[in-house]
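#struct-pred

JT: dropping the chains for the assembly here, can someone run the whole complex?
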Amino acid sequence: MTDPRVDLLLALGDDELVLGHRHAHWTGVAPHLEEDLAFSSIAQDEIGHAVVWYRLAGELTGKDPDALGLGRPPEGYRNAILVERPNRDWGYTVARHYCYDIAEDVRLTTLADSLWTPLAEATGALRREERYHLLHARLWLDRLAHGPLDARGHLADGLVAALAEAPGLFEPLPGEDELVADGVLPLASADQHTRWRDVVTAELTALGLEHVLDGSAHHSDGEFVPTSSGELLDTGDGAAAAGAVASGGGLGGRLGRHSEDFAEVWEELTGTYRAYPGVRW
Amino acid sequence: MTTRTVPTADDVRAVLDTVADPEMPPVTVAELGMVVDVRVADDGGRTRVEIDLVATFSGCPATAVIREDVTRAVAAMDGVDEVAVRFVTSVVWDPERITLPGRRKLQAFGIAPPGSGQTLVQIGSRTATGRPVGVVCPLCGSTDTTADSPFGPTPCRSSSYCNACRNPFEVIKP
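RK: done, full complex below.
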């Protein structure tokens, strides 16, 4: 019988590792230097956080953190499908960054109350560091939402796509009942999902973007949006059409069932380790 | 019978105060507030030193180098047979842990130390672009400074600009 805490730690670590890897794809090619720096730095933080979780999992399993992070077959990874998707464009990148970092905030706030002390302790440094990610995500959400029509359209498309798969971040873990009963996980995934939805709904509504919550990239009856320059933009007809909306809520990742996009991440992420198993750096 | 010198925890701490941070060499790991605990165990004539450190940021890639540097420095001490260095999460690093000498050295190195007026602001926000942040420039002392980015060359530093001496500079993140 496997320790359900290992599944929890792998889900936490794999989300961070895989999204960190995707964020790092902006290194060198971001729209401007500050964002190159921002995404590189956030990627480094997330991968560092993955190591924190793998180290804890290593204490339970006796496995090396590198072997846990880089030495599993694709179906062994427990990350949500949302984080394995390519960056697409800036609008999707910002939308996913926002959805994920609000989820991480809910998750770390929950785990801070864990009765398993090493887990609760580990959230201290992570929450301190994640403040910068949240700040960055909200900044860009606000900027694109008030930006020109084109920016707002890309953001809305990105939000529709990211929101469709965000439930995967809260997919119940195997052995979750036991984790909740033991106080390791003080709040079940479904309840964390509710908290997340409350935050996201309030913040997107405040930006006049509540229509994305229903899967629509634009208001059905047209929409006037005040921009930073004070103009009113009609986004009803001009907004780009909604991207393909994934069905099924992006579920499956916590059971090791991934999308076609994961193969690319896995190949790249584990390539060096597979070529030189057990390598140290 | 020969008498062995067994170092005290304070002796070990004194050595840690000489181990340079790999990314900010003027300051030591002790000055950065990374030392959480030092224990010296005399186990039947063998002296084992255990050192608990806290990383400034979890994702800091320098921790492996710091571990090696600390291990090497302490292992070179008279009477030390074994050194075990580990990074702990029971303590959360905070810039307030940086000592006064550490702060002075950071400032001389061109990095605004904690206490320079840094706050967690929405840098570069739509409504506050170019907003003065009032961090004391470590190079000229002016407070006519603006924040460039909450991120910087290492996880623990952000980037700012001084309008008075027209130099970019880094700030220890709050």
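JT: nice. Strands of chain A lie at 224-226, 232-234. The CA atoms of residues 157 and 175 of chain A lie 35 Å apart.
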